[in-house]
C-alpha cells in the first residue's frame, strides 16, 4: 500500500492513499512491434557497412578462405545483435538502457590485422580480444580516473591514425585484394573501385536523407551489379553451405593468448571505452535523459562483457556505433526498444550464413572504392576531434605531430620493426598502438608533469600569446589617457580590457612585456 498524506479540500481535511509514480524516461517509450521493427531496420542499414567491414579485413589478413569469410561475417552480425540487446534492454550491472547500437569496433581492426599477420592467425586474434576485454571489464570501475589521460588531443590522434592505418587496406582492395592474381592492380579493378567511389559521392549528395545515409551500402550494391554485368563477380561459393545455421563456437580454433597481443589490444580497449563513454553521454543528451556514473559504468560493462563472449562465437571487440547516435538525433526516435528490435534483426541475419557468403562474394575492388570513403570518414572524425583541441600556450601541437608521425611509420615502412623482439614488433607494428602509446606518454609528460610544462614563447611548437615591448605600447593609436597595464594586459581607467589594433586595423591579443622577457 502506498504512503498516506493529508489533502486539504474546500476547507475540510481528508486522508488519501497516494502511490508514488516514477516519471517515465523518454527512452522507455514503446512504439509498438511494427514501428520498432521498421525503425530498427533503419538502424541496421545505417551501420551494416561498418559491421561487415572488420571481419572481411581481419579475415583476409589472416588468410581465411572466401567461404569461411562469409561465416565470419555472419558471426559478427550475430554477436553484434546480442550485444545491442544487452546494451539497450540491460540486466543488473550490464547495459546503459539507452538506444545504442553495438557492433565490431573499427578501432580494433588495424591492431587485429597486425596480430593476425605476425603468425598468430585467428586463434591469436580471438585470444587477444578476449584477454583485453577481460582487463577492460576489470578496470571499468576505475575508468573515471583513467579517462582524464585520454583527452581530445589523445583520442583525436588515435581516431585519425585508425583511418589512416586502414587506407592501405582500401588501396589493396581497389587493386584486387590478392597480389598473387594476374588481375591485381589492373585498370579494370581500379576502374571498378573508382566507379563505386563515384556512386558513393553522387548518392551522398542526394536530397533524400535515407539515400544519403545509405550511400555506402547502396554504392556497394550498384558496384556489385556492375561487376556482375561485366563478369568481374564470382557467385560460385554462395550455394556452398547451409542457408540457416547457429554459429559454431570456436570455429576457427581455440583462442591463443599472447602477452604482446593482449597488451596491444588493451590499448585499443582503452580507446574504445573512451569512445563508448562519449557515445553514452551524447545519446543521453540527444534523448534528454539523465546519465550518471552508474549508467556509464553499466554501458561500459556491457561493451566489455559482450567482447569477452564475442570470440566464443567467432566475433571481435564490441563497441557503440557513433553513426547510430547521429541517426537518433536525425530521426528523433528515442525509444531504446527500437534499437532492441535492430538487435533482433542482426541476430536473425547472423543465423543466415548464406547472407554472409553473399557479402563475401562482393568483388574486392567494389569494397576498395567504398572503403576509401568509409576509412576516410574515420580519419576525418579524428581530425574533427583534433580541431577542438586548444593549441595556445601549450605543447599539444608537438604531441599531435609526434604521435601521428609515430603511427604512420609502420604504415609507410611495414618492415621498420622487423629486427626488434617479437613482442615489441607486435605492439608497434600497429599504427594505432604506436600513436596511442606516444600520445598518452607525451600528454602525460607535457600536460600533467609540472616541470615539463613550457612557458609561453619558450618553444617554437607553442602557439603563444603575442608579446609587444613596453616601449612600443604608445605606437597603438587607439590607446587613451588613463589606460594602464595590469598583469600584462592593457585596461582602461575602469579596469576593462582595451581592444588593441594593429596597423591594419585588426584586433590583436597581446601581452605587454619588456624586451628582457619580463611582463
Automatic annotation (TrEMBL):
Q: Does the keyword NAD apply?
A: no
Q: Provide the coiled-coil residue spans.
A: none
Designated name of the protein:
Nucleobase:cation symporter-2 family protein
The residue ranges crossing the membrane are 47-64, 71-94, 106-137, 149-171, 183-204, 216-238, 250-273, 337-360, 366-383, 395-417, 423-446
Q: Which Pfam families match?
A: Xan_ur_permease (PF00860)
What is its membrane topology?
Answer: Multi-pass membrane protein
Q: Which UniProt keywords apply?
A: Cell membrane, Membrane, Transmembrane, Transmembrane helix, Transport
Family to which the UniProt record says this protein belongs: Belongs to the nucleobase:cation symporter-2 (NCS2) (TC 2.A.40) family.
Q: Where in the cell is it found?
A: Cell membrane
Amino acid at each position: 500500500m502506498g504512503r498516506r498524506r493529508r489533502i486539504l479540500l474546500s476547507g475540510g481535511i481528508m486522508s488519501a492513499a497516494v502511490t508514488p509514480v516514477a516519471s517515465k524516461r523518454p527512452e522507455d517509450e514503446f512504439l509498438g512491434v511494427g514501428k520498432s521493427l521498421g525503425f530498427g531496420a533503419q538502424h541496421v542499414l545505417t551501420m551494416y557497412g561498418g559491421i561487415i567491414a572488420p571481419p572481411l579485413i581481419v579475415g583476409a589478413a589472416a588468410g581465411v578462405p572466401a567461404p569461411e569469410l562469409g561465416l565470419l561475417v555472419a558471426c559478427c552480425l550475430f554477436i553484434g545483435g546480442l550485444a545491442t540487446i544487452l546494451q539497450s534492454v540491460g540486466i543488473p550491472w550490464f547495459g546503459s538502457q539507452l538506444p545504442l547500437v553495438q557492433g565490431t569496433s573499427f578501432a580494433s581492426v588495424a591492431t587485429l590485422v597486425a596480430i593476425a599477420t605476425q603468425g598468430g592467425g585467428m586463434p591469436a586474434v580471438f585470444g587477444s580480444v578476449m584477454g583485453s576485454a577481460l582487463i577492460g571489464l576489470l578496470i571499468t570501475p576505475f575508468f573515471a580516473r583513467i579517462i582524464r589521460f585520454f583527452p581530445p588531443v589523445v583520442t583525436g590522434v588515435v581516431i585519425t591514425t585508425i583511418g589512416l592505418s586502414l587506407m592501405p587496406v582500401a588501396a589493396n582492395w581497389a587493386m584486387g585484394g590478392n597480389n598473387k592474381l594476374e588481375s591485381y592492380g589492373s585498370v579494370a579493378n581500379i576502374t571498378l573501385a573508382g566507379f563505386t567511389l563515384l556512386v558513393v559521392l553522387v548518392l551522398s549528395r542526394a536530397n533524400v536523407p535515407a539515400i544519403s545515409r545509405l550511400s555506402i551500402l547502396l554504392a556497394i550494391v550498384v558496384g556489385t551489379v556492375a561487376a556482375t554485368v561485366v563478369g568481374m563477380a564470382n557467385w560460385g561459393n554462395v550455394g556452398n553451405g547451409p542457408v540457416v545455421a547457429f554459429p559454431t563456437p570456436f570455429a576457427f580454433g581455440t583462442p591463443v593468448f599472447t602477452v604482446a597481443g593482449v597488451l596491444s589490444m588493451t590499448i585499443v580497449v582503452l580507446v574504445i571505452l573512451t569512445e563508448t563513454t562519449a557515445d553514452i553521454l551524447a545519446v543521453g543528451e540527444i534523448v534528454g535523459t539523465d546519465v550518471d556514473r552508474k549508467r556509464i559504468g553499466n554501458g561500459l560493462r556491457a561493451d566489455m562483457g559482450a567482447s569477452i563472449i564475442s570470440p566464443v562465437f567467432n566475433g571481435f571487440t564490441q563497441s557503440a556505433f557513433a553513426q547510430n547516435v547521429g541517426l537518433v538525433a536525425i530521426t528523433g526516435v528515442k525509444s531504446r526498444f527500437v534499437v532492441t528490435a535492430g538487435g533482433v534483426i542482426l541476430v536473425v541475419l547472423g543465423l543466415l550464413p548464406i547472407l554472409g557468403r553473399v557479402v563475401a562474394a562482393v568483388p574486392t575492388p567494389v569494397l576498395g572504392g567504398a572503403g576509401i570513403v568509409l576509412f576516410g570518414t574515420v580519419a576525418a572524425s579524428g581530425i574533427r576531434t583534433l580541431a577542438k583541441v586548444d593549441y595556445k600556450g601549450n605543447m599539444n601541437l608537438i604531441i599531435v605531430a609526434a604521435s601521428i608521425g609515430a603511427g604512420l611509420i609502420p604504415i609507410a615502412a611495414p618492415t621498420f620493426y622487423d629486427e626488434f623482439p617479437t613482442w615489441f614488433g607486435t605492439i608497434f607494428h600497429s599504427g594505432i598502438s604506436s600513436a596511442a602509446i606516444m600520445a598518452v606518454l607525451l600528454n602525460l609528460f607535457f600536460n600533467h608533469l609540472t616541470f615539463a610544462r613550457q612557458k609561453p614563447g619558450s618553444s617554437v611548437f607553442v602557439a603563444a600569446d603575442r608579446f609587444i615591448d613596453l616601449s612600443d605600447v604608445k605606437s597603438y593609436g587607439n590607446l587613451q589617457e588613463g589606460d594602464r597595464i595590469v598583469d600584462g594586459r592593457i585596461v582602461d581607467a575602469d579596469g576593462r580590457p582595451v581592444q588593441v589594433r594593429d596597423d591594419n586595423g585588426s584586433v590583436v591579443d597581446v601581452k605587454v612585456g619588456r624586451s628582457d622577457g619580463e611582463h
